[in-house]
Amino acid sequence: MSYEPSKVLRDGLQTAGNALDGYFSIKVAGDTFGLPVTQVQTIFRIGSVTPAPGGPADIVGLVNLRGKIVTAVSLRRRLGLEPEAGGPGSLAIGIEHHKEAFALLVDEVGDVLTLTPDNAIAPPPHIGRQRAKFASGYNRVGGQILPLLNVDAVFDFSDDK
Amino acid sequence: MDEMLMEFLAESAEQIEAASAQIVEFERNPEDAALISSIFRLVHTIKGTCGFLGLERLQRLTHHAESLIGCLREGATATPDVVSAILTAVDQVKVLLGDLEETGQEPDGDDSEMIALLERQVAICQGGEAADAAASAEAPLVAEAEPEPVVDEVVEPEPEPEPEPVAAAPEEWPAEPAAEVVTRPATQESLDALVASLRAAKLDVRREQAAAAKAEPAKAPEPAPTAPAAKGASDAAHPAAAKAGESGEGRAKGADTIRINLNTLERIMNLVSELVLTRNQLIELTRHKEDETLKSPLQRLSTMTTDLQDAVMRARMQPVERVFSNLPRMIRDLANDLNKKINLVTEGADTELDRQLIDLIRDPLTHLVRNCADHGIETPEERLRVGKPAAGTVRVSAAHEAGQITIEIADDGRGLDINKIKKKAIQLGVASAQQLERMSDEEIYRFIFAAGFSTAEKVTNVSGRGVGMDVVRENIQAIGGSVALTSTPGKGAKFALKIPLTLAIAPALIVEASGQRFALPQHSVVEAVGLNGGEHKIELVQGSKILQLREAVLPIGSLAELLHLAPPENRTAEAEQLAVIMRVGAHAFGITVDAVVDVQEIVVKPMGGSLSHLSSFSGHTILGDGSVVLILDPNGVCQALGLEQSREGSAAHVESGSLRVGDRTRLVYFRAGTGVDKVLPLSNIARIETVSSEKIEFSNGMMLMQHQGRLMPIVSAAPDVMVKEGDNTVFVVSPDGEPFGLLIDAIVDIIEEKLDVEIAGDQPGIVGAAEINGKVVELLDIAHFIDIVRPQAERPKDRKSRLLLIDDAAFFRDMLASTLQAHGFEVVKAGTGAQGVSAVGHSGPFDAALIDVELPDVAGYELAERLREAGAAFPMIALAPYATREIQRAAAAAGMAGAVGKFQRNQLLDLIRACIEQQNDMQDEDLFAGAAA
User: Fold this and answer.
1) Closest chain B CA to residue A58
2) Which residues in chain A have Cβ-Cβ distances shorter than 8 Å to B627?
3) How far, in Å, are B250, B820, B837 from residue B919 at the CA level?
4) Which of these CATH numbers, 3.40.50.720, 3.40.50.300, 3.40.190.10, 3.40.50.2300, describes B802-932?
5) What is the pLDDT of residues B539-553, one digit of tens each?
6) Are the CB atoms for B326 and B17 separated by under 8 Å?
7) Contact criterion met (CB below 8 Å) for B503 and B480
8) CATH code 3.30.565.10 for B320-500
9) How many whole angstroms separate alpha carbon B520 and alpha carbon B515?
10) Looking at the complex, does the CB of residue A158 fall below 8 Å from at least one CB of chain B?
11) DSSP line for B570-587
12) In what side-by-side order are the strands of the sheet with B392-401?
């Protein structure tokens, strides 16, 4: 287990300090999502993963984050994309949701973006329902459309049980 | 919420709980003046605080309740009506407090009905007591009032002028309408009421001081003096120092304890857990380093962490009294509802248990007590008819026993009705009449823990809805505990709960299956059995895996398969070499794993929400090396194996069924040298080892091998058995606790046969020849080999010592019997006292008897006395799960030779040998004396 606060994170948190509407841009398999900076507790590389037999398929297992056991969730699997290897060294975002500590495995954490309500656009109508539920909103940033990650949906496994 | 309000709620909850328990107590002991004063004070304190906090509704209600309690204190009779009225009021206060806690506000509405009821009771009390009120008011005035007010006033300087007038009108609290004070008759304003209210005022004043100092310092009329200063002043100023000292002490005591928010305690506990884990990691890291500078501080860190962990655990401990305290009230209400007379006796209320567990055992315990009162205790008429006192007794006792808490709930009622249980069992289809026929009473009683099992003819609102006992057992098992049940018809039933001290830290086996590690709580593990030796084999019976272990037939499953673990690529079929035998309630079962990697104290952490639905796991933990492992839930594993609750009796039945094979013996059938095949009773063999030829050394003409860290001698089972190149098979035999090896050529089979030695052998090392399945085999004589290995060793007695083993638990019975047989004893088993008595009659004589103290039909001690009366002269040893001092004493009182814990094999063997030796010596002396005379 190694914890290397990336430069991005340090910069990001500083930006976030005065901009509550700061968003990390996170990338998985070519998709980019916005994740509110306030939701992110830490960004780290995971150590060894202990699988949880019988658990939801999108849960990769349990990892030790500095003495705390966190549930590792693959965002790729969650979105129905080609699963990553998910082994030690994978990049993860520490998020606490409903008092449970999660590590969301992602490919890349990019810049912090500042979004304002003017950026928001209506959801494109033709997005599949399975995918659409993981977006809480859509923004237009610099000519690109950025879906915002719906953390509640990502960590709600009640359908998978 | 307001911090003061929180404090008030926490305090009031305790006070109201105490008050309601004391009221019930008072109803039974109306003479106890101290008790009613205490109740009065408790209610008064709540009332006072309510007034201070502006909680008018609560204040009004408590005021009226207090009036009625006041009447009782003045000597009014505590009729059931009066007590019920007070209790309803107390209940209502609880409800209001509950709402207050939830919403932070006093709920709307009024309690005029209840107040009217209370007033009516006050009127009745006063009507009857008016005449003697004046007279009785005199006595307390002289007896109690004198020194106290003075002292209290001095010790607690008044911060506000208000409390002073309290002397004249104790009911006058800031928010209270003055009119209410006037309604109280003047006769009640006796001085002891004043004393009580002053005492209460003292409390309130203190709170006011604190509040005033904290919230609005400016409002405090004079600076609140610190406690020691006040005490010092009073000591100096007043020679009445004795009393002052006393109340000073009282306060000091108060200062010794502080109230801690549960979350704070939880946080400390969590931090300590983390610390323990970090410590373990550090130790792991430095294990292979020879760095002396690091070693000693690390050692200190380690001890201190352990001490800290211990201290924090202790802080979480609470007396079981917290659960016991609401029992008197419940029993009282039950007795009233059911028209029964019931006494409640509680013992060991100060026994401490982890806070978390206290909350978890509350429901099961309450349910069991209800059950005793409802089903167990008969109506007074019925009791008198059978010659028992009209009032039944429910006894609840708690005690520490070797790292566990035992809570017993016993009644002296009618006991369980075995016929009803049988009928119900057949009706529910959990057992057939024939099966029941063969079951012991104990096994049949256990059916009441099956789901949907209620034999109550009419369903009362108290208990008996058919949900309950199964839930009780599940709840207790879920926390790693167990429920045992004994019952004697006409004498009563007893439930014994065994509960671990804490859930937070538990010893666990770290097992490996399919490359993944899991923690298995040790409390449910019975033993681990190697599967590679050929002694224990897994067989397929109708598609299900079965393990034959000694006399038991156990369902067994592969952990990897149960959890659907993907097999690692290089996996071979023989990877699972170890069966871990577990026991959950009535079920004994095994799981096969690749290895037991370690035994560790683990810090149990609950699973996060997204995985908490997995029934096979109870939590997760971090091991010393920093890796995360899941903690297996024995209950969940049991279910995953397909052992359902409804098959309750059947597991036990299989065990007892195999007992009846009786004269058939499990034999190891093997080849040793030339000549016919040999056999040895399996019970004579402790282990079967495969030893490579390099591991066998020769020294002084004897073969030796390393066994469990010691050198063990090996002899050839026949003169022409030689050490072969490569693997050799060695039986480890330890007839007297000192193991030695027996080298053989190959195991052929393990069979269960009746063994009749027909032709006595003239060859050394052979008892004789016998015919098995049409083939002649020779039975090896272990004694001969002992002579070879230890020529100087004491020769075993010509005749094997015979033991009578009486234990109702088939599992222990079998386990112990095999141990004893392995140590050269002949064992006759009995499952009940009655069987024991008949065994003495039919299969005697015995050299000693081992008697479980808790038999279903008779207490072990009683049985010992009965056997002795029947002429049994042999020594008797009491068996108990743990030989506590009480058990030792009881055993001695019953004339038994001693008491030993069932798991303390060595002590048990020592005691048996000592007993038998003494017995033989005595017999020799007798002979001698007889000859001399």
Assistant:
1) B610
2) 48, 50, 64
3) 60, 18, 21
4) 3.40.50.2300
5) 887 777 888 877 778
6) yes
7) yes
8) yes
9) 16
10) no
11) T--GGG--EEEEEEETTE
12) B342-347, B392-401, B404-411, B492-500, B482-488
DSSP, collapsed to helix, strand or coil, labels residue A138 as strand
Name residue, tokens 């001399």: B932
| Contact by Cβ (8 Å): A59, A140 | no
B765-784: pLDDT as tens digits: 777 777 777 778 888 877 77
Q: How far is residue B390's CA from residue B629's CA, in Å, rounded to a whole number?
A: 57
Instruction: Give the ipTM.
Output: 0.78
Count of beta carbons in the 10 Å neighbourhood of residue A86: 18
Whether the pLDDT of residue B653 is over 60: the answer is: no
| Superfamily, domain B505-658 | SH3 Domains (2.30.30.40)
Tell me the C-alpha distance between B270 and B604, whole Å.
Answer: 10
Which of B628, B631, B633, B639 would best serve as a mutation to test chain A binding (most A beta carbons within 10 A)?
B628
Among the partner residues B614, B622, B626, nearest to A52 by beta-carbon distance: B614
Across the interface, of A53, A64, A161, the residue whose CB is closest to B563 is: A53
Chain B's closest residue to A100, CA to CA, is: B608
Q: Is B476 helix (H, G, I), strand (E, B) or coil?
A: helix
Tell me the one-letter amino acid at B628. V
d(CA B346, CA B324): 7
Distance from CA of A98 to the nearest CA of B (A): 8
B640 — alpha (psi -120 to 50), left (phi > 0) or beta?
Answer: alpha
**Please, is B622 exposed, middle or buried when counting C-beta atoms within 10 Å of its C-beta (0-12, 13-18, 19+)?**
buried
Residue in B274, B563, B629 closest to A67 by CB? B274
A137 touches B: beta carbon within 8 Å: no
The Cα B112–Cα B10 span in angstroms is: 26
- Flag whether the pTM goes above 0.80: no
Asked whether the beta carbons of B418 and B444 are under 8 A apart, the reply is yes
The residue among A104, A102, A100 whose CA lies nearest residue A86 is A104
